[in-house]
Design a protein that fits this description.
The complex is a heterodimer of chains A (about 500) and B (about 240). Chain A is about 50% helix and about 5% strand. Chain A contains 23 helices and 8 strands. The relative contact order of chain A is 0.14. The termini of chain B are far apart. Chain B is mainly alpha-helical and about 240 residues long. The longest helix of chain B is centred in the N-terminal third of the chain and has 33 residues. Chain B has a domain of about 150 residues. Classes of the chains: A mainly alpha (about 500), B mainly alpha (about 240).
């Protein structure tokens, strides 16, 4: 997650509210995610440039993946092109490019799969829309597989349960394997492998940042709240997206976690080797890297002999921690009974609040009218607490306890049906700004509606990408007056601290 | 009389045999596709949250998707209604076809036979709406391949030729029954001499042949869809 400001200045995108656009072919064909340089690719054991026999290599890899991933195979086989998903993707609604309709995005791979791996596609390609993997198709793969934020909103509406993110992840993995990795994700994965976090921040620098934050909190509140690093003997390891250490508005959320844990008297620590919750291998689709990055968390927890692991506010990190961690790195059976899976900071805070260990006073946030943006990976890729819909109810319970007034956005844009912020899945780069701004349109429209009707002042969320993306692009949607904030910023401000 | 089959016997067996082979292909190829899916590993849990935490919950989710098309209902009311009309119309019409297989006609089946006109109307209406929206809506036109239209036209052809047999070109029900029962028990009987029936049967055989190797298999795909059939990873 980088907090760089937009380098391009585009006119505001203010579309008519929830109108399904007519398709406009090629509308976003010119927006390309930067291709990873040779050095980065090679550091990950991948070819540094497009290999000569890319066609055969790509087909070979596709053949392997459909044999290794049931989801991918079933999804490629069962789409009926019923069109249920065609008006559900924020990138289609924002760009009007038909290849951003989920089914059309999948069809980029499905048509090639049919051509090379099905009898009908081999002999009667025109009949079933089977296509060769030629240069123009390769170009479309790279362009449109990187204009997907893998948010899985389309899956909610698909009568076959087809998950476009499985297709785009596989597509990106194939592209990287023939030399076309994506700069943003691959560079970050490479940094995490070398240094331990997305920013490539060395332990000494991280310790300085944490010390400065401790001073800030002391100045502001008069209470000595600690932000420990590599504290052996701590009970709880907190792993958070590295944007929380320095970016606005993320850092206020980090201060919020620290205040809550301080008040609860929990001895906790960050780890310099796992100072990153984010796992960009989910975006690049490489299961080997996914496992490697997840393993750091297990190893850090074992090194520090903690009994609990807590994940900070990060959407896809929470999906990886909640849904994949056991499978990727084995069961976390060395943790304390009752806490044998990684816990979300919202779950931890919610338990403390419910059991009366901490007290929240909404009047400390007087004047704030807050709406909550559900982050896609939390909403559709994970859960929290004891209820299947805990990922919706727990953050909302904390929000309601921390601010005087909460206003929900339209129900078809929240909870399971939430719209992506427009920057997820590895799209959060400067060169993608046009697509990012347009992709935020549906969320912005729903927000505009509650700003008009209820004078909403703040938009709270629990994902580092959402925070960076929304604070960057909402001004482009005439929403500069709404402050994007971390949920734990509001919690931290409402907390009675002593 | 010469002791070899005469020409009509050969051709009767040919048509009956073709139907037998098509049914066998349908069953075996569909089974093969499902075995292929079942044998493909599912490395990471990718269920769509909020996910059921019990097996009964998963079963409920699958039943809702299979029989009520729940996700489609969220997506588009018109497509949902048209799909329900088409699929349930087809199901009822298929049940009515049991009259050719179960002799004598049981009483319960008579109830279905009496609503067969309604069933056929829903079937045709549903298909017509699905076809019209595929032609009219620009997004649907963009994603449709020739096979998407042809599947609908094939099903419409089967439904309309079947309706023709009922209302325009009356067919010998007993002889048709004998032909069908013969084909399913490898004791092939002649097909009644009715051009409408020949057309209907030819289209049905075509449908049986393409079913396992086309998107028409999607109903079985739902059962194997990891976003539907998995439990919450931390149940």
């Amino acid at each position: 997650m980088n907090a760089r400001q937009p380098t391009t200045s585009l006119p505001p995108v203010v579309g008519a509210y929830r109108v399904i656009p007519l398709i406009q072919e090629g509308a976003s064909a010119s927006v390309h995610s930067a291709v990873a340089g040779a050095e980065i690719q090679e550091s990950l054991g991948l070819p540094g440039a497009l290999v000569e026999n890319w066609h055969d290599k790509a087909i070979e890899r596709l053949g392997q993946l459909v044999k290794q991933r049931r989801g991918l195979r079933v999804f490629l086989d069962t789409c009926t092109r019923c069109g249920a998903c065609t008006d559900k993707c924020h990138y289609f609604l924002g760009t009007h490019d038909p290849k951003n309709m989920p089914v059309a995005r999948q069809d980029l791979m499905r048509s090639v799969y049919r051509r090379y791996f099905t009898v009908v596609g081999r002999y009667l390609p025109w009949l079933v829309g089977a296509r060769d993997l030629d240069e123009s198709m390769l170009d479309d793969w790279y362009t449109y597989f990187h204009q997907c934020s893998e948010c899985r909103r389309c899956t909610v509406y698909c009568p076959k349960g087809i998950d476009t993110s499985e297709v785009t992840m596989a597509g990106r993995e194939i592209l990287a394997s023939i030399g076309l990795g994506q700069q943003y994700s691959q560079e970050i994965i490479s940094k995490v492998r070398r240094v331990g976090n997305n920013l490539g921040m060395k332990p000494r620098a991280l310790a300085d940042v944490l010390e400065n934050l401790e001073e800030d909190i002391l100045d502001e509140t008069g209470v000595a709240v600690r932000l420990p690093l590599d504290d052996e003997g701590a009970d709880m390891l907190v792993v958070t997206p590295s944007a929380d250490f320095f970016a606005e508005p993320h850092v206020d959320g980090l201060i919020g976690y620290a205040k809550v844990l301080h008040q609860a008297g929990i001895r906790w620590t960050f780890s310099s080797t796992a100072a990153e919750a984010a796992n960009f291998a989910l975006f690049s689709g490489h299961h080997g890297h996914l496992r490697e990055l997840a393993m750091r968390i297990r190893l850090a927890a074992m090194d520090l002999s903690v009994s609990r692991i807590t994940i900070g506010e990060c959407g896809h990190a929470w999906r990886v921690a909640y849904s994949f961690l056991d499978t990727l790195v084995g069961p976390l059976d060395f943790l304390q009974p009752g806490h044998t899976r990684a816990e979300h900071i919202c779950e931890v805070t919610h338990q403390l609040w419910c059991s009366g260990v901490i007290t929240l006073d909404p009047q400390r946030n007087a004047g704030k009218v807050v709406s909550f943006h559900d982050s896609c990976n939390v909403a559709r890729g994970a859960s929290m607490g004891d209820r299947p819909d805990g990922q919706f109810t727990i953050p909302r319970a904390l929000l309601a306890a921390s601010v005087p007034r909460v206003v929900e956005m339209s129900a078809d844009t929240t909870r399971q049906k939430t719209f992506c912020c427009g920057g997820g899945g590895g799209v959060l780069t400067d060169e993608m700004m046009e697509v990012r701004i347009k992709g935020a349109l549906p969320r912005a429209q729903a927000l505009q509606a509650v700003v008009r009707s209820d004078q909403v002042t703040h938009l709270a969320t629990i994902c580092a990408i959402c925070k960076t993306q929304l604070s960057t692009v909402l001004p482009q949607h005439d929403l500069a007056g709404v402050q994007v904030t971390s949920l734990h910023h509001l919690v931290g401000d409402a907390l009675l601290l002593s | 009389m010469p002791d070899y089959p005469s020409l009509p016997v050969v051709s009767d067996a040919l048509i009956g045999g073709l139907l037998s082979a098509a049914v066998a292909w349908l069953l075996l190829a569909t089974l093969w596709r499902m075995i292929q899916w079942a044998l493909t590993p599912s490395p990471l849990p990718i269920v769509l949250a909020p996910a059921p935490r019990t097996r009964a919950g998963v079963l409920g989710r699958l039943l809702l998707e299979l029989f009520v098309f729940r996700s489609l209902a969220r997506a588009s009311m018109i497509t949902w209604l048209a799909s329900l009309a088409f699929h349930y119309g087809l199901l009822l019409v298929l049940v009515v076809h049991l009259r050719f297989l179960i002799v004598p006609l049981p009483l319960w089946l008579l109830l279905f036979v009496r609503v067969s006109t309604w069933a056929a109307s829903f079937l045709v209406l549903g298909l017509a709406v699905l076809l019209i929206r595929r032609v009219l809506i620009d997004r649907l036109r963009y994603i449709s391949t020739p096979s998407d239209y042809l599947h609908l036209l094939l099903l419409l052809g089967i439904a309309l030729s079947g309706a023709g047999l009922k209302y325009l070109w009356p067919v010998d029900l007993f002889a048709t029954s004998q032909f069908l029962r013969g084909a399913l028990s490898f004791n092939w009987q002649p097909l009644p001499d009715n051009a409408g029936l020949w057309l209907h049967l030819a289209l049905v055989i075509l449908l049986l042949l393409i079913f396992p190797v086309s998107k028409l298999l999607h109903g079985f795909g739902i059962l194997f869809s990891p976003t539907f059939n998995q439990r919450d990873p931390n149940r």
